[in-house]
């Protein structure tokens, strides 16, 4: 037991507490026939919680953590503290990048050995914990070797390095019983088209993703392969811009049955979408997988990765998740970082706990909206005209046939109210 | 001859002129082995030039045109003036929506009859003119019946109305010898997800586009079917968000060999892209078709549809067009409107003439960059590592194979300068 | 009694109702020692509710109101319906532009006569109603004569026209017992700097505002003069960009004691601010006046003027209002329009009723946060170091004196947690 | 002589060169009666050129510079290389933050001693160089002690630290003959209003700036005090949002005659303005000082600090500078960083050289536009109506008087074309 979280006991569900506690999240509460824990499937992220030093483009490290440094001992200390946080929060899952959990070595081989050793150490920790691995992923963007891309790098040796990294991360994910493997291509894009062969780079990215999927099957990994879209930052333009873009990419490379989406609210916003749009689109295309439940600041033009705090927004999120059938291998990952001024250990606990409560409120509101049924009834009623055989026949007919009805029947269709304000009022009954 | 442009003679190429003239656009100048007119294939747009009254969300009509009104006589006067402008500008092409050229009737049948009559009148005008039809399109967004969509409307009768409208517009486009037919789905999206069945609406849109393509083949229309992407406005979210989104949509509905893109600079910007990105992406996916060469104001969050005026930006546009092989059926359409304070007939001529000069400068700069070859040589050199057989073999191999090389060969790839500033300096030698 | 709202009875406070009712807004409920009606001081806006036809840049009128048209009879009918809505909603206030309530005449004199006649008609309506005038304002932006500005127009005759318009509007506001007079300068800005004498135009605007203030005193108008900032739209740049800009403008023209702010959430967002920022800044500068409680869509780059629907955001709004001492002459105006697809009379009622409920929830949450006191205690504690005499002395001393302490005392100040997540969690206990 | 720039000779003006050279910037060329060097007054920035390691929020150091590290020897090496770059570029000025040029010490006193020592070293370098100091400034944002602000910090000891830092930087600026002193308040703002006493912080900031001005006079510093506005980043909101905001701030604290603006293009864009807007506004308010000539990427929502590369934009910049009378103490600083992939020493030279050429082209175009006079004549003509005595009298009269004319004279003012497209065409003759 480290003393990092000294004085902070595991959080209890206690709506009336004046201390640090869950006011809304009760893991065992049954919502729509399922425990909240099984609905929400919360995961904490190693990177933002334990590896990020608090820097921004105009300032350096603000956090002073006893595990900061590059030794294996410190990596183990970090893992010890991480599992202490998982216990305090009672989160069923966690996530990692390779670079979060192991010190970088002087060579690939040394990095890999460090990684394998710490993976075993974490597996040991998992044996004494309820917390499982939601997903692993490879950091192919922080080191300067990746500055011009990983799979899309102009240098084929970096493609090889990336392949080797993903291979070892996928192996480790399988070994740890991970339920998914995620690819986020922060550098798979460009800074300027002037030095970029966009077509070639997209082909490299497509082939790389095919190779990952092939390898998954080869080793018998049963989890899902997830791609996390983001439009830009760090790149000026990233090939995995948004859900619609990735869908086209998957179709182009024959991967639409193999790969699903890990959708982050902040990235949706950067791409000019609402989060619920991205979720609804992914669900409608059959590629919905998992979510990163961290918001952006609407006034900031970059990825702020903040814990969620707006219940009405979160309710719409889980409304789409529930309509999509809920998570299977996916879950609710907090890819969220503390504000860099939130220096204290208790901030880390409070950030997660507040977010978990917000998600619990959102889930319960979403469930209530579904059970109430008014929203879906009004939606169905709006499209009821399409339920007639004649209307459906029009869709299987031809343009001239559809057109002929207009004059033949003297059609003069009148618009009907979209009732947006009424629908928003109905949502507000539940949030 | 109307007197609308009284005193304005057809523009001449006269670099030294102190009057209204082309300073850079000489239709007959040969660039890269082709006349500039044949490269640029300029088109003027009926809508913005002759039908838009100058309104904005906070103010009404500013233009007072003698042809404003709803009679056939006024529609013919408008056509007369349009062709006078085409002659003054010597543009080889024009474009229309049905609603631009004919008065709305009291019924579909009356609107169609108005339309067919004015189409014949315009065909008569074309016989005395060099100006041809680049593309026709249907206005399925202005009338209140389309407020909730055309093909994606909850009311199947509006789907039928839209089918009938596109049928008549495609028939007219063919009759007028049009080289393309464009679909822009300004209302094919939603205001709020709360009242929207996104999956159903996308299916309707997909089927509609298939029906259009089938009808094209049925009537033997030889032109291209083009979709014009736009992320939003008027809708909060539009299904044809950007080139990548439309590509996925075409793949989903089996249309990727049938449909190409009409890409507008302003829409690229609204979607968070540079224009050259959208062009390069479309070319790399084999779906590049035509362009709407009108810019947005970078400080305004809506579609300002301004004439292009920045030569360095336009040079990068034509650089991508030339690299894509140039236009075949497509061209450079000015989907641009005067600022609403630009009341005078001469403003309409000057807006187009300035834009044509800017495009001519851009094209010549792009051609010079290609002929110089430095940019492409530097790009090729950056990826030269991939030209080896070993690197190519890696792409056809598997993940483990690619990975194995890293440790076996002790790879330690070093980043190389991306040389962005140098490349930008090279571009600046030509613009 | 018109039949426009036929079947819609005045709304009751009935939290358990399944019909149209207030679930949270009880005008007589006492919050922090004051009735909610007296806290919130709701106002309905004539323009968006009764005059806006539902157009957007890509489509025309969607609403079909029996009072649309240009006769005095229709203007009276519109007023009748307006007061019926005020009664149904039980709103204590309304607001108008001159152009909302009277038909435009063929000359200024005719417009003025129309205006004066309808003002008297409305005064008659007010006598039978509880609803008072929160503010009047002049529409100096819709007519084409204002396309290049009102007070800032290059044509001095339009300055005169604007003066005459404001004079008659201020006279009418006084006659109707209005509590404020608002100026919003939608065209007081520019489309392009190339044709703009920015210095001259700002001087014209400053002198105009001085003249308005002088006239207010001359006629003994007791209400407040309010300026409503907006950064752009319809202009590319508007001189009243945001609260900070207007403050500088008031200081420049010696008006900071005479003019206060009418702050709109949507305009705050367009200017890159949160609404609470603009409120807190205005309060700190002593120029807080009134609010337009209508939101923008965060994904749309223009002014969507939607009814508020997010309780956590609205709670932060009223938290700032309460900290500023609450409204005096000001109030909560819904400068909000229905979505253009919301065609039905009930939509108009539901839009306002939902917004009033959201505001009531926000107010009650804000009051509870203030009564709880934790937020303010934590804020005060954060700055407690400044409460020492030594710290205060430093502010009245000089730079060298402040500097000298650092080495003399060997200062090594350590950062302390900003506790943002904890504070956000506290807010979430109340919303 | 270090070997960092080995093989790179001082750049020559040689338009026909195929090597690294100035194609447009000839320091001695006379434009509008003044040498270009004296017009443009180029400065290189120590921070971006020599101290920035190439990091971004998703990746660390990419540059490997021999002077990276924390010793005085390395600081001297950095200075040696800096002056070698100044010589190669023939720039007349440079700029620094204290933290750029000296290693941070373990205490304030040690940092100060390091600073004073390196200041003397740089003064020695200056004696052998033509390059002078344009401005010095204090870095009050990178170290974690400033995470919650410098002058606006909740901790008065950090106010004291900031005072001591600015005092030593202003002393050093004076000692080095600097022509200006700049304050940029990257952390003078907030992350969340919830923990912020906005009024108190603004008062602290105002008093701090007064103290700086008082100290300037006390020590007899003859240069200008400049404030550099920026709306956000690193803070969510920064008190020095834009020129208009700072103007109000200066008025509030009685500093408008004492402080001028250092305006950066990228910051203008982040604030929703064009660069030329900020310049024109500052000039019209009498607070124009100097410029940071580095652009943002319009598609990226953060401060990219790129070298300028768009001649038409830069021409409009210098058009405003020339209209404002040109620089006095100010100049053209490149507060620009290489892209993080531009690893080579030659990139640093090329980035600056390309920018200097772009500025030279912009200046010459701006001068030509002024000499041509058409733009200014058209502007003056547009406002000519205001030149009559009657129009001017209206401005000194009262509202009722201005109003009375409208009906008395039967005014019916007609809008005139704003001629934006024609004006843009005229600009394009020169760029
Ligand atoms: Co993120
Ligand atoms: Co994420
Ligand atoms: Co457009
Ligand atoms: Co277009
Ligand atoms: Co508004
Ligand atoms: Co408003
Ligand atoms: Co900057
Ligand atoms: Co700067």
Automatic annotation (TrEMBL), chains A, B, C, D:
Active site: 97, 100
Cofactor(s) needed: Mg(2+)
Family under the similarity heading: Belongs to the xylose isomerase family.
Species of the source: Aliishimia ponticola
Sequence positions that bind Mg(2+) 2: 264, 267, 303, 305
Subcellular location(s) of the protein: Cytoplasm
Assigned GO CC terms: cytoplasm
Major subcellular location class: cytoplasm
Cross-referenced HAMAP family: Xylose_isom_A (MF_00455)
Name of the molecule in the record: Xylose isomerase
Reaction(s) catalysed by this chain's protein: alpha-D-xylose = alpha-D-xylulofuranose
Record's cofactor remark: Binds 2 magnesium ions per subunit.
EC number: 5.3.1.5
One Gene Ontology MF term: xylose isomerase activity
Subunit structure of this chain's protein: Homotetramer.
